[in-house]
Amino acid sequence: MPVVFQIGLLGLGTVGTGTANIILNPEQRHPLVRELNIAQVGVRSPDKARSVDLPPEVVTTDLDGIVTNPDIDIVVEVMGGIEPARSLVLKAIQHGKHVVTANKALIARHSDEIFTAAEAAGVYVLLEAAVGGGIPVIEPLKQSLCANRIDCITGILNGTTNYILTRMQQEGGDFEEILADAQELGYAEADPTADVDGFDAADKIAIVAALAYGGRINLDEVYCEGIRQITATDIDYADRLGFVIKLLATARRDRQSSQSSQSDRLEVRVHPTLVPKEHPLANVNDVFNAILVEGDPIGQVMFYGPGAGSGPTASAVVSDILNVAALLKVERSGSTKPDGTPMLDPLLAPSHQHYCSIRPIDDLETRFYTRLLAKDEPGVIGTLGICFGKNNVSLESIVQIDKHNEQAEIVIVTHKVREGNVRQALKAIRDFDVVEYVPGILRVLD
Amino acid sequence: MPVVFQIGLLGLGTVGTGTANIILNPEQRHPLVRELNIAQVGVRSPDKARSVDLPPEVVTTDLDGIVTNPDIDIVVEVMGGIEPARSLVLKAIQHGKHVVTANKALIARHSDEIFTAAEAAGVYVLLEAAVGGGIPVIEPLKQSLCANRIDCITGILNGTTNYILTRMQQEGGDFEEILADAQELGYAEADPTADVDGFDAADKIAIVAALAYGGRINLDEVYCEGIRQITATDIDYADRLGFVIKLLATARRDRQSSQSSQSDRLEVRVHPTLVPKEHPLANVNDVFNAILVEGDPIGQVMFYGPGAGSGPTASAVVSDILNVAALLKVERSGSTKPDGTPMLDPLLAPSHQHYCSIRPIDDLETRFYTRLLAKDEPGVIGTLGICFGKNNVSLESIVQIDKHNEQAEIVIVTHKVREGNVRQALKAIRDFDVVEYVPGILRVLD
Question: H/E element holding B120?
């Protein structure tokens, strides 16, 4: 019987529901997901209809009871807001619970007391979901880029403003009208202040800067300017100058002081910025987020993906839960397996031993591109079409592109078909008298 | 005195030198870097001139002595090739050393015996540098995306072929001529087979697929097709159809079987592919790599960056070393600190307590964009220019764009200047009689 890690979930809104749905559906995920159990879920209204199937006895309005419950190993705070989230997280820590949170506003304002309490209690507070939704940002900075000296982090960290700016860019509209439309479509909140005035992005860059530069950030010192004053005229002029306007969040180590770690000064700021069109961040559009990390010796790396939403954010929350569970598993085993060999972190040590079954390439189903040279005679395209049809290859287009020296070059794109059938058709076609040359096939990305 | 982790480095080529350089220069990196010590470095020619400053007594030609040295905690294999790397890694594992390797060819072919030996010995074998150079790929898949059901991974994983295809796309040249040029410039090897025939990308996607789908991959079953047959004509036709041609490495869970984990079948394949121009992978050019992961519930995330090179690859190698060191640190402490509280993984638990010093926005130095409405009178641009000059704001351009109702709209872009000076200049300009309206400033990304 596997060890089970007991989870207390604070909140069952969008992210909480997404989190529960992953834990309740462990198939094809990391085997450790099966060792998670949702012991309690704290909600405000227990009778509200939900899209997740939880036994009624785990749902409670007694949130205090969850964070003090001695059976619970990991408290997952996905309720948002400052209070009561702050008090509950602190109480959970005092009771020796590890904490996973998606609450950027809380961490950006109260990381000081929260991390101090966590350090004293010897528990983890993980917060991958607080920045960039599902995009791995926090953990890569902690674990994959930890050898680097981080020079600069530049991110598009707020989906709502990026959506508005993208539409302003594409449609030429003004801020107010597109904001109203975004609110109607659910991309912006009724009170859009946190997003459009840059505060949400400021919370996130403060969290990332603290990690990257190993010091706390006073949020009041983060310069923050939103996108309300951006007009269609600015976007138009920027476009003529070769730029797009993006709301960028930046954390940069002051170049003057970069040689002496004692006198480090940082720039941490959020403001609309003219981004050269060929820059990787210029093509991050709509509600997508991206974060560009520049360091020594890595150079530039960029992480791109969905910056919000139930599923992506829950992906980050559950991954944090699994990271804590993996460490607890090693700790509880006393660092050794029953046979006496060291117990390894189950996320870091691949222990699979079976071979995957791999589909032969002939069974691949995708779209194909091919071209061929044929004699320029009437009926060639018909002959080719019939041959493809006989082999169950449905064509999307067949076009004669060039004609020279009595030869016609014909380009063919298929619908999604089986590769084996395409090969069979081409084998037959190569033998046609009218066909001079068939260079091969190329596959088309779906 | 901190715990010190003893590193044995096998190889002092490009990646080995980069690795040593990070460890020998720990300033402004994670504090744990200071606890790493290069105990021994194994090389073939000890007298070769190197760009790294190591005490002569650590350099040895006795590689066997390194992997059996009882003082060494972590063996770092950056010599490449199959033998003697394979035998040395296996011997290191048998002697209880943790292993960090950048050797994709070795892992893709011998992961079976290596991971089996590591499991039996209870040691870690980490290999972030084997795929995507410095781009975090392996660890995010293991730790940040572990809650997901991975549907598909699509990557541009070979820099040489991406460089060649990018130039073919941009210049319209044919494969052979651009390959020759790439060889001359050092972007392709004298024997380019591993790159241009897709074998390097196949090694990498096999490693990634094993991780993502939790099973081993038989490299012989990975379909592999390179870019030798791609012609300027194909690139031209693809362009007309709205595509670019990229060498993609793909690992996909067979959709038919995606509901039953028992009968999983994978597609694992490398081949040139027509990629729609608006797809995120279409804009990954030159020697850059990118990997797109699609999963449930995350949706799509993409990791982008330098796929090779001394610095980026060393970044991944040293990060792996630090991950092992962090786990060893907890283990050696007996999981508790001297005061009895639990010892936490130093990479996951931020323990900084000081506040970072943040530069005020007035001290920011960057380029600025601003525009203003002025009366359409002679000399306005001169007056503005003088005012900016007085405030030490050097201008890149000042252009009158539109003129209507006796008003001229003037757009100004500065060189890199101090923000405080720009604000001071604009304050003065707002008081000019000829100036009607100054909406504010926008910063320009460097």
Answer: helix B104-121
